[in-house]
Amino acid sequence: MAFSLELVSRPLLDDPSIDAVYIPLLNGLHCEWALKALAKSKHVLLEKPSVSNAAEAELLFHSPLLEQPNAPVLLEAFHYSFHPARQHFLTLIDPANVAHARCTASVPALVFPKDDIRFQYDLAGGTMMDRRSRQKRKC
C-alpha cells in the first residue's frame, strides 16, 4: 500500500479540535503544507528551513492568511531562540561591541552518495539546507 500524505494529513487539518500543527516534512513540502494549515486557521510550528527559496518566502510570510483578524501564528522551529541557556549567554555579551561572528561547517563529499536526498534540488536540499539556515540565524 502506498503512503499518501494527503490522506493522512487532511483529516488532521479538518479536525476542529486541533488548534496547531507541527510540520517536520521534507523541506520542499514545508511551504505547501504550512499554507494548507494556515488556510484551516491552524497555528503552525514549521521545521527549519521554513521555505526553499525567496518565492516561497514571499508567498508564505506575506500570505493574506496571516493578516486577517485573529490570524493563526506561524513560527519557524528554532528552539534555541527560547532556550534558557541562550538567554543567559546573551546577558554575558554586549552586542554593541560585537562586530561579527563567523561559523564554518563542512561535510566531506564522500560522506553521502551523490543521489542522497540531501542533494535533491526539488526537495530543497534535505538536511544540508537545514544546516545552512542555522548558520544564517541572528542573535
From TrEMBL:
Domain Gfo/Idh/MocA-like oxidoreductase N-terminal, by residue range, is 12-61
Q: Which Pfam families match?
A: GFO_IDH_MocA
- Alphabetically ordered keywords of this record: Oxidoreductase
Q: EC?
A: 1.1.1.179
Q: Which reaction does it catalyse?
A: D-xylose + NADP(+) = D-xylono-1,5-lactone + NADPH + H(+)
Q: Name one GO molecular function term.
A: nucleotide binding
- Where does the source fall among the domains of life? Eukaryota
Q: Which family does it belong to?
A: Belongs to the Gfo/Idh/MocA family.
What is the protein name stated in its UniProt record?
A: D-xylose 1-dehydrogenase (NADP(+), D-xylono-1,5-lactone-forming)
The organism is Staphylotrichum longicolle
